[in-house]
Amino acid sequence: MQNTPEIQIALSHVTKRYDTASGSFRALDDISLSIRAGQLVAVTGKSGSGKSTLLNIITGIDTLSEGSVTIAGRTMNDLSEDALAAWRGRTIGIVFQFFQLLPTLTIAENVMLPMDFCSTTPRRARRARTLELLKQVGIEEQADKLPSALSGGQQQRAAIARALANDPPIIVADEPTGNLDSHTAQSIFQLFKDLAARGKTVVIVTHEKEFTSLFKDSVTICDGTIVDSSGVLLQ
Length: 235
Known about the structure:
It is a single chain. This protein is 30% helix and 29% strand. It has 6 helices and 10 strands; from the N terminus they run E-E-E-H-E-E-H-E-H-H-H-E-H-E-E-E. The chain has helices at 51-59, 81-91, 107-118, 126-136, 152-163, 182-197; strands spanning 7-20, 23-36, 40-44, 66-71, 74-75, 92-95, 170-174, 201-205, 217-222, 225-230. The strands form 2 sheets. The chain has a 6-stranded mixed sheet with strand order 6-7-8-3-9-10, sandwiched between helices. A 4-stranded antiparallel sheet has the order 2-1-4-5.
C-alpha cells in the first residue's frame, strides 16, 4: 500500500480582519485547507482577493484574527515573535516578486545569509553548499557577481537558491515571475515544479493564466474566500 504524503500546511477556519476608518475589512474569511508534502499549488485570484494575505498567514509574517494554522506539524498560534522568526528561517523559504537581493553583496553572499542567521550549516561548509545550490538553479558561474550584473531571470534563480539555503520543507512564492518575460517565467515555473518533484511543498501566488497548465493543484480566492480548488483538501 502506498503511503499518503503528510499534511504540511493546514489552515482551519482562518479569518484575517483589518480595522479601517470605514469599518472592519475581512481579507480572509473562514479559510480552511490542507496541502500535502510534495504538492505544487497555485493560488490564483484577482488583485485584492486575499492571495498575498494567505501567503503571509502561512509564513507567519501576518497574524490571524480567528482560526488556527499548523505548518510542518507546528501550530503557529502560540509562537512568540522570536520563536516565529527562528522557526520561519528553518521551515519556509520565501521568494519575492522583486527578488529582494541585497545589492552590495555578491550572489553567493546573498544565498549564504539565511545560513548565517540560522546557523544550520557549519561556517566552513557554507560556501560549498551555496555553490551547489547555485548549480542546482543553473547560475553557479554568477556566484561572485553583484545582483546588478545579472538578468532578472538570473536574479530570481538566485532568490530561489537563497530560499533553499536552510533546506526548508516548504517554499512559498508571491508573484515570482511578475517582472519576467514569458520565456524566463516558463523556466522559473519549471524550476518550482522540479523542487516539488524532489519533495518540497511549493505554494505560488500567480495570476499568469498562460502557465496554469503547469499546476495540477490550485486554489482560487475571491473576496477572501475559496471559490474553486483542485487537488487541495478543503475541510
